[in-house]
Amino acid sequence: MTRRQASSTRRGGGSFPLSGVLHSKSKSSPLLSISLVLLGAFLLIIYACGGSGLLGGRKDVVSRVEGDFSCTFEVPSAIPVLKNAYGGNMKNVLHVGPESCSVVSILLREGETDAWGVEPYDIEDADRNCKALVQKGIVRVADIKFPLPYRAKSFSHVIVSDALDYLSPKYLNKTLPELARVSAEGIIIFTGYPGQQRAKIAQLSKFGRPAKMRSSSWWKQFFTDTSLEENEAAVKKFEQAASKMSYKPTCQIFHLSSYH
């Protein structure tokens, strides 16, 4: 009988090992139980804060690493620097890329520059402001792998962000010269650094392919192959303006001259 009881006790202890430990330890050290309770409460507070957004700053860092980063969100911060560098030459601007409605709205709100946009992807979930811009013809939804619906030199400058990162070289050979065709003064390209940005799985149906982040040397060789030249004067002025205004770009920014 004594053996059976011992065996039974072992089986019961095997089912709830932690309970047995806590029970035995609580007799010898009540502080252990109190410490475990406080630790559990602390972990619950951290979990609740994370779920309620109180730790959202950290979540933003993680999301940027995992692929939420977008060069289009960089454009509004760069606009004052661009205007400083290019002076009064930025008279009418075409923005090409996702979230084009947002960029165009900012430019129009400032009132110093006429602005139009090309949204390369569906805008079914766009807000009223964006749909109004589309209805007025200020922003157009167009596949940039094909000729743009504008005459040559229709705009002083073309700003393109994110869109080129989703094109293969086959289509870049057509799209980049087309952007040069519709610009009179220059093209400004915002693109990610290698390893910086990837499309999420849910975005692949929209973009058609994952983003391809290319190095600066790759782009410069591609510009040479397509007979496009970097605007060295604009590059220097932009760098000076960026330093003066404490602007540090998080994307690669290229300044190209238009075809003449």
Which properties best describe this structure?
disordered N terminus; 6 strands; 6-stranded mixed beta sheet; 260 residues
Largest sheet: 6 strands, mixed
| Beta fraction | 5-15%
Overall, the morphology is: globular
pLDDT average, as an integer? 77
Low-confidence region ranges: 1-28, 46-68, 198-205
From the alpha carbons, calculate the radius of gyration and give it in angstroms. 28 Å
The CA-CA distance between the termini, in Å, is: 103 Å
Tally of contiguous helical segments: 11
Strand order of the largest sheet: 3-2-1-4-5-6
Element order: H for helix, E for strand: HHHHHEHEHEEHEHHHE
Number of strands: 6
Helix content: 40-55%
Question: What class do helices, strands and sheet pairing give?
Answer: alpha/beta
Short description:
The chain has helices spanning 2-15, 17-28, 30-52, 56-68, 75-86, 100-110, 128-135, 169-181, 204-207, 216-225, 232-244, and strands at residues 92-96, 114-119, 139-141, 155-161, 183-191, 252-256. The protein has 260 residues and is an alpha/beta fold. β2 (114-119), α7 (128-135) and β3 form a beta-alpha-beta unit.
Question: Can you walk through the features of this model?
Answer:
By secondary structure, the chain is an alpha/beta fold. The chain is built from eleven helices and six strands. It has helices at residues 2-15, 17-28, 30-52, 56-68, 75-86, 100-110, 128-135, 169-181, 204-207, 216-225, 232-244; strands spanning 92-96, 114-119, 139-141, 155-161, 183-191, 252-256. It has a six-stranded mixed β-sheet. Helix 2 crosses helix 3 (30-52). 27% of the residues are buried.
